[in-house]
Amino acid sequence: MKIKRISNGTSGKIGICIIRWVVFALIAFVVLMPVYWIFISSITPPGELFKSPIEYLPKHPSLESYQFLVSHVGLLEKIRNTIIIIGVTLIVGTFICILGAYGFYRFRDRKGVNLAFLFIVATMLIPEVVTARPLYEFMRKVGLFDTYPGLIILYISSIVPFTILILRGFVGGIPVVLEEAAAIDGAGFWQRMRYIILPLMKPAIATVCIINFISCLNNFFTPLYYSNHIQVLSVAIVQLPLRDNMYGVPWDLTSAMGWIILMPIILFVAIFEKQIMDGIMAGGVKA
Amino acid sequence: MYRSKSKAMALLPWLLVLPVVILRAFTTIYPVTKTIRDSFFDIRLLAGKNVFCGFENYIRMFHDPKVLISIQFTVIFVFVSMFFHITLGVLLAMALNMKFKGQRFLRTIVLIPWAMPSVVAGMAAKWAFNNDYGLINDLIRRIVPSFQYNWLIYRGSARAAVIAVDLWKDLPFFAILVLSNLQFISGDLYEAAKVDGASARQCFTKITLPLIAKGVATLCIPFTLWRLTSFDLVYSMTSGGPGEDTALIAYRITTEAFTNLNIGYASAMAVVLFLIMMAFSLINMRITGSKKFET
Amino acid sequence: MKRRTGRMLSLALSAGMALGCGAVPAMAESTEASGDYDLTLYSIQTTDPEFKDWLSDVESGTGLKINVIAAPTDSDTRQQKVTTMLSTGDSSVDIIEINDEMSTTFKNSGWLEGLNDTVMTDDVRDKFAKGYVDQMITNVDGQVIGVPSYTGYLAFWVNQQIMDEVGIKSIDTKDDFMKYMEAVSGNGRFGYGGSWEKTYVFNEIAQFVNMFGGDYYDWTNPHNKEAMEFLHELVQKGYTSLDQLPDKYEQMNPKAIDGKYGCWFMWGTGTDYANADMLGDDKIHMAMVPSFAEDGSRSIFTDSWSYVLNAASEHKDAAVKFLQYMTGKDGMEASYKYFDRYPARADLAEEIVPDSNPVKKMYAEYAKECNVQGRPMLPQTMEFISAMGTIFQSYMRDEISIDDFLSQAQGYVEEYQ
């Protein structure tokens, strides 16, 4: 924003203004065009889906695909499961990650703690898909396969490394002096946590929550492989009915399903846009 | 009384970090151990085979044309994609940092591609690059009406298409994270530079770049790792085709492990991938780590 | 303010913990509920609009209470999921619906229960198409492992509007076929269209090999070479397009509907064409497969999905009851009525399907005039299919020569056998 002041002269200002709007339009176009195209696919009846050239304003828009999904894919149950699993994951996961991040940073000079931190970072390097099969066997052996606790454990586990990394960096930004002053005033650990650390970390917590919310909602592999009965929204994408030759996956329904998942995210981001951006901008994500 | 309290204080760090450590250990130690063990066995479930074979899987891997081609593409994918993540990501971040009316709107919408489920994005991309009905060629044809090209049937263009979709989906997220780094640069620096008569370009190369370089380098770790293990895009967009030209190594491993049930072989590839990721992270941390905790 | 947010947060956190703990027993109960069912079915049909009606018919017909789990319909995902379940001895599902790719993969693995003594007894087995049962769902010990749930053909489809335009009445021989190719192709239109995605194209490779009288398992056979060179020639002469290399059926069908293809092979009864109002004797319809061989013989592939019994199942009695029902008239009728699945038993198809259904006539002709076969598959089916698809694509793109293609194909046959 300061760069703007460097240039001088009115003509230069207008020029820059034009460039700005061109850049703006270009970015918006590249980002939104495919999304819009997926949207119009979802409101076009299957018989008219493929047209060349593309009709960017569908002639006969219909909500057929959405109606189909609502009545035949068990959306309500999937939404309920998704809310339970992601809700518990975010609450419990964020809580233990805050504690962990705080512990890892404040006690980083202790060898054991530091080693534990390195362990967390190292596990980040494990490609989840490639260890999926033994993990599947393991979950069955310990009786957690196809259960809510099992799925929640896996979801939390998947968000731990990145969350810890971000939050730990943030704890580093909180001056120790604040805590020391509170400690002298007789504040115990939990009090310091509650009145000093948590309020200061609010933006960072908001940021990891939104990032984790999105990545959990899109997590397709975990619910697909580690459960049979318990199904969540993302899995519905691969459960759409086949066309009669048993091989064709219906694009009209797939695009509609994509939007059903995208909708809550867009709403969430639109409503909490300010908080999220403040969180990110406050340096919450220094990775 | 005091004693017991200090004892509790000694335990405190462990109370804090143990929940996450135990949770991670619970979900990783067994699978990793098992994967390492399996990598030394010739396990082919469909052929009913399960015998110790030493390093055979590891040796075979480097003679298997399918694996070699996926290593080749993975390297290209990671380098090209990360190159554009960094260059375009910094540019996009600066665009998002411009102060004007559309700024908030722009910052919000750029996250949409990232939030799109990748299976849907992959299927959409398969259609989008279709010559007859796809979005891409349709847009091009509005400018060049006679344009005909099928992106997904040639090695080069299919690979370019996969990388383009990856960038469309992930670049905005990267840019938002770079943006948060940009926010830390104090305006006074630019003021001072201006007083000294620096041009806009000099401001960029002398102030902006050096100050965000470390942040960007740190961001590169998770983003590169995600690329190395990425398979869902290819899975739904090209299934590795044409031929095996766009089969990323993670996709190859998934296919061997889940479809072909060559468990031992898949495990060996997984171990190699893990080692590569480890090496990469160590190198990256060496480079960035020397100046760590400066800010 | 700070105090309040702090309190709120800790409140939320403790509530979350409580919820997390409380949720455990509550949820355990709900999954346990599957104990009330007699049997669990892993089905790809659950999202079909008429699935519920089908299920209630089947439940009242068998007297079983059936618990249903939705299986992925996307082919890769489904294959991986079912493979993982069976190979790890997962007993949480009893009956699974699997396609030919999976039945040939699993039939000799011991993961599926043999049904000779219980369901597919000699008299029942004889009612099904023998060639299909022997090739696709009978294991090395002679045990039949599945109950076919329908009959489908890789039918030959033509666009009548194009045929009328170029004035060709029927495509019966290789000469007719080539004349048609020449007349139709040009200006963005192609005589022949295909789905040449690497895991789909083997259908067509094998179809042409059979049409030329070759043998898919023997690539030293000169007819195989002839068939492949024929396809290559179609590409070279512009009679078919390389654009179809990434196409699956869902990409091919819109092109067929738009009149870009003169003829093609496809499974099913043409719902996509019907949706676009392009199905009918004067538009797009099935036709007899042309004969390319000197002796005038015709070949066609049949496919099916089979209900199979998980060997690890703990509810085998109920499962057998279910499977027995599926081999009979009521089971076949329910599939036809609700899912439009053409009955797998020819004798029942005669009874169930009304003569007004155009598919009936065509399918009867296919069964009468063609050599009906299951598709060529080996134990490591998916690996084999995708390996063949890969080299086929390379050959069509002129990256390898015909001789390379043949020797590699032969190598794969030997490797995966």
Question: Can you describe what's shown?
Answer:
The complex is a heterotrimer of chains A (287), B (295) and C (417). By secondary structure, chain A is mostly helical. Chain A is globular, with a radius of gyration of 24 Å. Chain A has helices spanning 3-6, 10-42, 64-72, 75-106, 111-124, 132-141, 148-171, 176-184, 189-218, 221-226, 233-236, 251-271, 273-284. Chain A has two domains: 3-63, no CATH class; 65-284, MetI-like fold. Chain B has 295 residues and is mainly alpha-helical. Chain B has one domain: Orthogonal Bundle (MetI-like fold), CATH 1.10.3720.10. Chain B contains 13 helices and two strands; from the N terminus they run αββαααααααααααα. In chain B, strand 1 and strand 2 (49-52) form a beta hairpin. The longest helix of chain B is centred in the N-terminal third of the chain and has 37 residues, at 2-38. In chain C, 49% of the residues lie in helices and 12% in strands. In chain C, strand 1, helix 2 and strand 2 (66-70) form a beta-alpha-beta unit. The N and C termini of chain C lie far apart (73 Å). Mean pLDDT of chain C is 88; it is low at 1-34. Classes of the chains: A mainly alpha (287), B mainly alpha (295), C alpha/beta (417). The interface between B and C is medium-sized, with 28 and 31 residues.
Comma- or semicolon-separated keywords:
heterotrimer, B: mainly alpha, MetI-like fold, disordered C terminus, C: alpha/beta, D-Maltodextrin-Binding Protein, domain 2, 2 domains, globular, disordered N terminus, MetI-like (chain B), cell membrane (chain B)
Fold blueprint:
The complex is a heterotrimer of chains A (about 290), B (about 300) and C (about 425).
Chain A: H1 3-6, H2 10-42, H3 64-72, H4 75-106, H5 111-124, H6 132-141, H7 148-171, H8 176-184, H9 189-218, H10 221-226, H11 233-236, H12 251-271, H13 273-284
Helix pairs in contact in A: 2-12, 3-12, 4-7, 4-9, 5-7, 7-9, 8-9, 9-13
Chain B: H1 2-38, E1 41-44, E2 49-52, H2 56-61, H3 65-97, H4 103-109, H5 112-115, H6 118-128, H7 135-141, H8 155-182, H9 187-195, H10 200-228, H11 232-237, H12 249-259, H13 263-289
Antiparallel strand pairs in B: 1-2
Helix pairs in contact in B: 1-13, 3-8, 3-10, 6-8, 8-10, 10-13, 12-13
Chain C: H1 2-32, E1 39-43, H2 51-62, E2 66-70, H3 75-87, E3 95-99, H4 100-106, H5 122-125, H6 130-136, E4 146-148, E5 152-153, E6 155-159, H7 160-166, H8 174-184, E7 190-193, H9 202-211, H10 222-236, H11 249-257, E8 261-266, H12 271-275, E9 284-287, E10 299-303, E11 305-309, H13 316-327, H14 329-339, H15 346-352, H16 358-369, E12 371-373, H17 381-396, H18 402-416
Helix pairs in contact in C: 2-14, 9-10, 17-18
